[in-house]
Every structure is written in structure tokens, then in C-alpha cells.
Amino acid sequence: MIYVPEKDSYACYVVNSDTTIRAYKQVPNHNSNIDYRDYYFHSNYIYRDGTQTFNQYSTLPVCLPSNKITSEVYYRNDFDSILIIFLIMCIFCFYIPLKIFFRLFRRFN
Fold first, then answer.
1. pLDDT band at 107 (very low <50, low <70, confident <90, very high)
2. How do the residues of the chain divide into helix, strand and coil, expressed in percent and rounded to 5?
3. Rounded to whole angstroms, how far apart are CA atoms 47 and 40?
4. Rounded to whole angstroms, what are the CA distances from 20 to 14, 40, 45, 70, 78?
5. Nearby residues of 79 by Cβ (< 8 Å), 6 or more positions away
6. Could you tell me whether strands 20-24 and 12-15 are parallel, antiparallel, or unpaired per DSSP bridges?
7. What's the pLDDT score for residue 80?
8. What is the CA radius of gyration of the chain?
9. Does residue 20 have a pLDDT over 80?
10. Which residues, 6 or more positions from 62, have their beta carbon under 8 angstroms from its beta carbon?
11. What is the predicted pLDDT for the residue at 108?
12. CA-CA distances (angstroms) from residue 75 to 42, 68, 70, 71, 107?
């Protein structure tokens, strides 16, 4: 499965290079201008918008099947990094302040 952030907003997805997935607003056909968005999945899914012109001599891209595309967050390329950052933030935001709080207000026997 390949993760894309906005699966339902685009009609056609093409693997453009080893670091880019191109999403077209409409299925490309000859003699048309189609808006697209390039997702750079090795760079935390930043994107760039543009328009591509297809003339009668253009080779039309082959769209990926819809069962290969998902918007489930668990399929993100950087999901492991997100979990590590979340764990570190939980430690600093919850565990350490709670430890300090309980130490300051513990019962003296």
C-alpha cells in the first residue's frame, strides 16, 4: 500500500520517481491541461502543485489501481519517527512533571 494524504481529492495517482508520487485532479487525456500535486514522501510528504499539458503526441501516464493507494496514517513512510517523537514528548510533558509533583507533595511519616 502507498500512503497519500488526500486520497479522495484526486482521480489518478502515478509514481513519478523514486521519491515522488504525482496526483492528478482528473484522469489525464489528450489535448488537455490537468492540475496535479507532487508528494515527496521521503521529505515528510511536502508537496508542490502545478499544471501539466497533454497534447495529442503525449504519452499518457498509467494510473495506479485504487486498491494500492490509501490514506491510512499507519502506512506513512515516516510513521516510526512520529511514534518516537510522540513517546519523547509524553515523557517530558507527563512523566517528569508528575514525578516532580509527587515528590514535592508526598506524605511525610
1. low
2. 30, 30, 40
3. 6
4. 9, 5, 9, 16, 15
5. 73
6. antiparallel
7. 85
8. 22
9. yes
10. 14
11. 56
12. 13, 11, 8, 8, 48
Higher pLDDT pick, 109 / 13: 13
One-letter amino acid identity for 41? F
Handedness of CA 20, 23, 24, 25 (dihedral sign): negative
Neighbours of 60 (CB within 10 A): 12
pTM across the whole model:
0.74
Helix and strand totals (H; E) in the chain: 2, 6
Bridge partners, 48 (sequence order) = 38
| Cell numbers linked to 60 | 499518457
Whose cell is 498509467? That residue is 62
| Residue 13 main-chain phi, psi, to 5 deg | -120, 135
Task: Count Cβ atoms below 10 Å from residue 2 Cβ, excluding itself.
Answer: 15
Q: What is the pLDDT of residues 67-105, one digit of tens each?
A: 888 888 888 888 888 899 999 998 888 888 888 888 888
Distances (CA, A) of 4 to 15, 75, 78, 92, 99: 11, 9, 12, 31, 40
